[in-house]
Design goal:
By secondary structure, the protein is of the alpha/beta class. It folds into 4 domains: 101 residues, 3-Layer(aba) Sandwich (Rossmann fold); 54 residues, no CATH class; 182 residues, P-loop containing nucleotide triphosphate hydrolases (Rossmann fold, 3-Layer(aba) Sandwich), CATH 3.40.50; 62 residues, Alpha-Beta Plaits (2-Layer Sandwich). Helix content is 44%, strand content 21%. Helix 4 runs antiparallel to helix 5 and helix 13 packs parallel to helix 14. The termini are far apart. About 7% of the residues have low confidence. This is GTPase HflX. GO terms for molecular function: GTP binding; GTPase activity; metal ion binding. InterPro entries: G_HFLX_dom, GTP-bd, GTPase_HflX, GTPase_HflX_N, GTPase_HflX_N_sf, HflX_C, P-loop_NTPase. Pfam families: GTP-bdg_N (PF13167), HflX_C (PF19275), MMR_HSR1 (PF01926).
Amino acid sequence: MNSGHSLQGGTAVVAARRTDDEPDTTEIRRLTAAAGYEVVAERTQRRARDAGYGLGQGKAEAVAETAADHDVDAVVYDGALSPGQYANWAALLPPDVELLDRYRLVLGIFAEGAADRAAQLQVELATLEYRLPRLRQVTEESLLNQATEKGSVVLDVEDRIDRLHNELQAVSDRAERRRTERREQGFDPVAIAGYTNAGKSTLLHRLADDLSVESLGTGHADLDDTAAVEDRLFETLETTTRRATVGGRRVLLTDTVGLVDALPHDLVASFSATLDAVADADVGLLVVDASDPVEAVREKLRVSLGELDDPRGELLVVLNKRDLLDDGALDECREAVADLDRVDDVLAVSAVEGTGVDALCDRVHEALPGETLRANLPNGGDTEAFLAWAHDHGTVVGREYDGETVHFTFEARPALVERARARVDDLGGTTETPDGDG
């Protein structure tokens, strides 16, 4: 059994079960293809979940026979296998056949797509933490007893997990220092989070100064569940940051790693660097596909929110693809998520069409931490240099020249407003608080 985090590729048999309906293998076939496997056969079953194999034992044996007949490289099970079920399957299959359940398959695709160090560390950690109990289950007790002398794959994995946690902490510390530096430079961090296919990347293109939705093409091809998995589902594995201007404020938008539907709850926590970026942002945008069933929308948000212990800023739920819903369905979706803990507001948009995006920007601007300073400075070169600094670090409005005096209003993060106040004093100017007191 391969204990690494990459997938071997080759040929595969797909196995799927549903309780009430005939299994639809379209999605698992797409995932399998995206992982580099050619599906040469499938075996499906309509029955209650079996405690030993997920499928009934007879069907599981038929899958193993099919795998041997086709000399495949892997068996892909469309669902989650417990450690005990994993051990049962491992004993049933030919020894050189890799066993992949749906979650292991998805994590393998993540591993192939991870380019930056943070993404690589997070995917490897998630994979190993998912595989560790399965390794324990299939490892003989005698080997564990001898581990202190001879070592074991289990102890090797445990040691690697410890090292990954330490490396990820170092990566998170560096990222936090970068966010602090950017705040000092006048940028407001805004994180876009959510599940794949919710439209996070399209929203980033809609909001960023240097991107456009048109560059993605038209329609919902990048958002729809029927889009090609290998092209769309995992294209934002690394975090992507772009500059944007919201209400005159300079914002850094970060499109974070997309979570995948039905990943085990404890695995979501493995993507700690991504979750840290959301928790530390001045505003977090949790994007969800509003055209999903209402209960699915609520569950995805519940999982996302459950991993955010104490977010710094406001969390805004963005119900995307509102153009696919009528008013009644949209209201039902909004009501279903409005009472979730830590949700500060719910807004509906169409990232593709732009509907509701202006209202979202207004709400983001409202949520950004900021103060306003009214200032009067003597007209001259030093003042012009200061105003250039102010434009770079915040928003300058109402700029007027009255003889030898320049009047303007400066809006920015509180710490930057205090720096501006001190510089105005050094230049011999005067300041006023927003309510007009001198």
